[in-house]
Every structure is written in C-alpha cells, then in structure tokens.
Amino acid sequence: MNFVKRTLIITVAILLTGLPLGLLAQQMQSAHTPTMSAPAPVLPSRDATASDASAALARPPQTPIARVNNVVLTQTQLDEEMQRLFPYYAIHGGRVPAGAEVELRKQAMHDMVLHELVYQEARRRNLQVPLAAWQKRLREMRQRFATRQAYEAVATKQYGSVAAFEHRLRRVMLVEQLWNLEVTRKAAVTDQAARVYYQGHLSQFVRPESVWLQTITIKIPASATAEQKQQAKKIAEEILVKAKAAKNYEEFGMLAQQLSQDDWRVMMGDHRWVHRAAVTPDIEQPLFSLKAGEISGLVESSTGYVILRANDHKQKRQMSYTEMASGIRQRMEKEKREQRSSEFELSLNNKAKVEML
After folding, report:
1. Are 25 and 174 spatial neighbours (Cβ–Cβ below 8 Å)?
2. Average pLDDT, whole number, for the chain?
3. Strand arrangement of the beta sheet that strand 64-68 belongs to
4. Residues 231, 275: contact at Cβ < 8 Å?
5. Residues in contact with 241: Cβ distance below 8 Å, sequence separation at least 6, in sequence order
6. Engineered SS bond to 159: which of 67, 81, 89, 165, CB 3.0-4.6 Å?
7. pTM
8. Which CATH number fits domain 22-190+335-356: 1.10.1520.10, 3.40.50.150, 3.30.70.100, 1.10.4030.10?
9. Are residues 188 and 346 in contact, defined by beta-carbon separation less than 8 angstroms?
10. Does the pLDDT at position 296 exceed 80?
C-alpha cells in the first residue's frame, strides 16, 4: 500500500580494522567486544580442497601489494581483510561477487593500510598490552577449546605455531588500545554536553501526533473502467459492514488477513505507529480525526478504497531530556568518533610513506 510513505534509513558503520584470526577465531569467538576491530571473521581452513584452491585469486599469497613505511603488506593480508568484510568469502571459493569486488577490494586495501599504520604508531609510542588484559583475552581464547592441546593444535595448523598466533593476537590488542586512546576516549560525550545539545535543539525532540493504524484495502487497478471502480466500491462497502462490527484489534486483523488486497494483510493490516508526515494527504484527515478504537468509513486513496482503524492515538509532545539522553549521547559520540577517526588517520598518513605496489 503506497499511501504510507516509506523512509529507509541506512546507517553505514565502517569497520576500520581488525586483524583476522582465521580458523582459530572462528572456533573461539571471544566474548570480548573490541572498540576498533571487526567481529572475528572466518578464513578458509588451511586444508581447503584442491578445487577451492584452484578457484582462489590468481595472485600468489605472498605477492607484495603495498609498502607502509618499508613494511611490505601481502596478498594474504588483503585476502584476510576481504574475508572480514565479506563473511561468505570462503563459500565463493576465495572470491566475491563480481559486482562488489572493486569496491570491496578498495575498502579492504584502505583497512589493511590503516591497521598497519595504527600498529606502527603503537610500537613507536612503546605501548604495551597490560598483563592482566593479555591474560584475560588469552584465557577467553583457550576456554573455547576442550583442552589446551586442542587450542595449540588449531593455532599451529592455522599460523604455523602457537607463538605466531599469539603474536598476532597481541598485535590486535595494541591496535585496539591505541584506537581507544586516540578515538574512542576523545569522542566521549559528557552529560553536560548532551544537555546543552538538547536545550539547543528542542524542536528535534518533539514526538509528533501519531496513530496506531490498521487497514483493509480493496484495490482499484490504475486503468480500471467506471464499472470496475463501482464493483470495487461495492465489495469495499460489504467489507466495511463487517469491519464496523469488529470489536477489537484481533477481529479487525482477522478481516484484514482474509479480505485486504495489499501486502499489509499478512501483518493483520497493522502499520504500527504512523505520524502525519508518514501518510499521504488522502488519508491524513480521516485518520487523525479517529479516536482510539474507532473505524473510519470508506476512504478513497490513490490505490483503492481503504478502511482505517485507530487502535490508539498519541498527541504531539515535547520529549524530556531524561527520555532522550541515551540517544543524544550515542548520536553525538558517533559523530565525534567519525570526526576523530578521520583526523587520526590523516595525522598518521601525513607522516607515513605508503606505496601501492
């Protein structure tokens, strides 16, 4: 039904880095939630079949593809980043869908270089992973396995040795630590700052008048003749009699499931809460004149005849700071993180030599 306007809000969260931990990470997803790295990705097992190997990208794993301050980054590292960004990488034989490959590779290259820059900066500052944090993370990793031997076997199989895996894990923690210092902490928003924002943007925190809407629709084809329109109206009038007799949400909803001719019928005709800006003018006035529990007469809309039920009605209201505080801080911190991450990345790039090979 197109009389309810659809607004699609897409939030794009750019996962800046996160060193892939391969099969080991796949089997022991840590309860730790890092502030910089992505959720633990899945890499193809080292014992992949010959057909999987033949389908993999043509470039040899150790092919140099970038140099960051004289540190060479390889195709293997790029594959790992692409794996993190596209979790179904292994299923597609080490490839991504053709239409997404260019953009995904570009993002993976960016993330791989940034990860290396942050790691190098952490080393330059001589940052150390606190012993207690290291022991906790390692304990969480090992607890994913039945025995210590099982943990060591998987680490060795995937990375050549337990030491090699734990070195990479420590590297991830250093990157997280510096990112937390330079981005996350500096993006923190105090309660006072959030209150100032609220007071300066009161109009943003007004809950509009809204109605909990259910509908039944009888469609009229765009090219309908006068006779077809009359027939549709006759059917709608017969349904209206039944709708007016419905005593509650469930009875009206059952009618919608059985008789409505739009996609909302599978939801018992339930649109949940809608406000004035979300509905088209042809139903706005009849809808917002209904009281809770009332059912309209036939309303002719752009798609056909519609019967409206208002399950509840909320008046326009200024939301309090207490109600909005959490959302305000989240929004402000997100904006500050984006700004601070861009500034930090720029500062790293300005003093670095990055070459694409």
Report:
1. no
2. 82
3. 71-74, 64-68, 354-356
4. no
5. none
6. 165
7. 0.65
8. 1.10.4030.10
9. no
10. yes
